[in-house]
Request: fold
Amino acid sequence: MRKSERAISKVFDRLTSGKKINQGSDDPAGLALANSLKSNIRALEAEGKGLTQQQSSLNVASGALGSSVEQLQRMRDL
Reply:
């Protein structure tokens, strides 16, 4: 009887949380995989932010270079 109650409680916990794994004992291998994937996602998000910052820097440099080219062309024309 106790075992059935624990099983029902576990199913209820899964239903209310919407997660397959609520505790490490539910699926240790699945939990390890989920944690690894979460770590990979965080790393990719950080790389994405870094790329965005680099893109901004390149845009600034490109604008400055374009301005310099315009000035050099004016100097040549004079």
About this structure: The chain has a mean pLDDT of 86. The CA atoms of residues 18 and 74 lie 66 Å apart.
